[in-house]
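Reviewers of the previous submission asked for a worked example of the structure-prediction workflow described in the proposal, so we include one complete record here. The input consisted solely of the amino acid sequence. No template or homolog information was supplied to the procedure at any stage.
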Amino acid sequence: MALEKPRPVRETPVKEMDDAEAGEVLQTLAAEIAEHDKRYHQQDAPVISDADYDRIKQRYLAIEARFPHLKPVDAPSDKVGAEVASGFGKVVHRVGMLSLDNAFTDEDFVDFVERVRRFLRIPGGDELAFTAEPKIDGLSLSLRYEKGALVTAATRGNGAVGENVTANALTIRDIPHTLPAHAPEVLEVRGEVYMTREDFVALNERQAQLGKQTYVNPRNTAAGSLRQLDAALTAERSLKFFAYAWGEVLPELPADTQSEMVDRLGEYGFKTNDLMRRLTTVEALLAHYREIERVRAELPYDIDGVVYKVDDLRLQQRLGFVSRSPRWAIAHKFPAEKAFTILNAIDIQVGRTGALTPVARLEPVTVGGVVVTNATLHNAEEIERLGVRIGDTVEIQRAGDVIPQVLRVEKSPPDAIAFVFPSICPCHLKTPIVRDETAGGAEGVVRRCSGEFACPYQRKEHLKHFVSRKAFDIDGLGDKQIEYFYDDATLAIRQPADIFTLKSRDDAQDLQKLKNRDGYGDTSASKLFDAIEARRTITLDRLIFALGIRHVGETTAKTLARAYGNWAAFDEAAKAVAKGNEAAREEMDALDDIGPAVIEAVGRFFGEAHNLEMVEALVSQLTVMDMERPTSDSPVAGKTVVFTGSLERMTREEAKAMAERLGAKVAGSVSKKTDLLVAGPGAGSKLKKAAELGVETMDEDGWFELVGT
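From that input alone, the workflow returned the following structure tokens.
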């Protein structure tokens, strides 16, 4: 469609206008701008050029600046393309937005390809195609279209729930507001929001001219820009978008391969990366990686590696996922960037589990566009191996978001000072430092404070873990707030239960109420109390993870929660394990991916009186939700299945993935709670135990007949 010329508007010079004329022109221009905004942002059908639009907008702003008292109620200066958001709502991803595993060497990538072939039982001589594309250093975004119209845009968030940034996404010109008629009825398009280096430099120049803070790198600036509460600020940042993936698609996918699907996204109006290739050999894939690395500095945007994906979507489905990452994709990161600087000091940090980590305090140096002031030294043995001393010039490296580390000493002046690792915890309780033992009983490299929850550093770190995003995720209560409340005289938070009594303790105050303190007011205090109240109801897996039990991460917490179903059952089992009950230990050991280290850690945690007191006080403040039972109509949904012997039609990993897709729980050993044993040739002790316990047993063919595959 040809672009029109804008409607003529009376061009009286602004300085010659009176109130009556200015008011009339402001209303006329405001209506015209609103119409063009609607055509551009909602209908994707502009009828005037960008230059003409800008001219109209500039004239409007000039009049409004001279006659601010005549500003219309719905003024164009208060919005850009969409209503200004007052805050971010939550969007539940219909299909999870998972993160990728990383490969840092060619060998890591080759191992990935071999794992895929083993899982799928594809011999090395048979063709297996992958796509390879640059890994954009930006912010993941999911765009949901229904009947061709953009209805929501959401950040990755925690992978299951993201922030609703629809108003901001509508200001990004690379994002279509409508799709062509042949697009699927429901289509979630996923990709990366980023800022070009040229736009980033221009933004910093504008900031400097205005005397405002400049930004560190394009990636963080793009991420912060997309999360602005005012969409007008997002619009000023010249953000871009590359599409490369999808979530929910209904009624069906319009393609059978990754590469074809990306082509479809291009046909629907999305920008896709022209460096993406479909290749069939490891050699060709690595050669493309080298080429992208070679031209990296010439690209207009930042990248930090290459992403490989199995091309055939049916094979992707068979491969499935491990925890929060797909088996069918990996990110091959570029080598770490390095720099030299001076080591000014070495401090000791005490972590949540009491582990002592030496941290190098550095003379600030820029590495890969980020100013680095700290680097990890890992442990006492690493300090000794490097021979590092305070005052040395050291080489450091930074790879992506990995914590910078010290590689080696470049030079050491005569007055450099040797560092002596402490024998007591820096918490000043004179608590002795102990060393972990290896499986063979030898001393390990990790040194820990033996004070556990008596150590204030560990208490603080446990509390920070408790309120973190994957645990209780309490808005307005982060690391800084935990530090603030921990030492407070009247509103102290020393254990998790204290969080949920904070409002009642605040209500009892007079002049020391939270709303009267620096940094808070009526609104911010009320929002914090509301956020805490909203977390009184919590899922079982989040609660288990939030407790901070050593070796119990997010995936392990979910495994335990699914197995026991509710808090009472898990609490009873954990206490029984702590008391050495063999049946309870055996039941926990039968769970898939649960081993001796986890069982010992759970037993130690629930065997400590102060931990039990802490947990009981916490649970008394909560409503703990039972784990949802599978809704699948599969005959194995909700059942516990064990696979044993040599499976012939599928690998063990593929069998596990299939069972979990059908709603079953997969265990690693047979117990009285096992519902079904699938036994291949060579089955031994598990088959015998199943017979003793009366567990239903079938062969591989029986399994496929049962599940209807």
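The first strand starts at residue 90 and ends at 92. We consider this example representative of the routine output the project will generate in years two and three.
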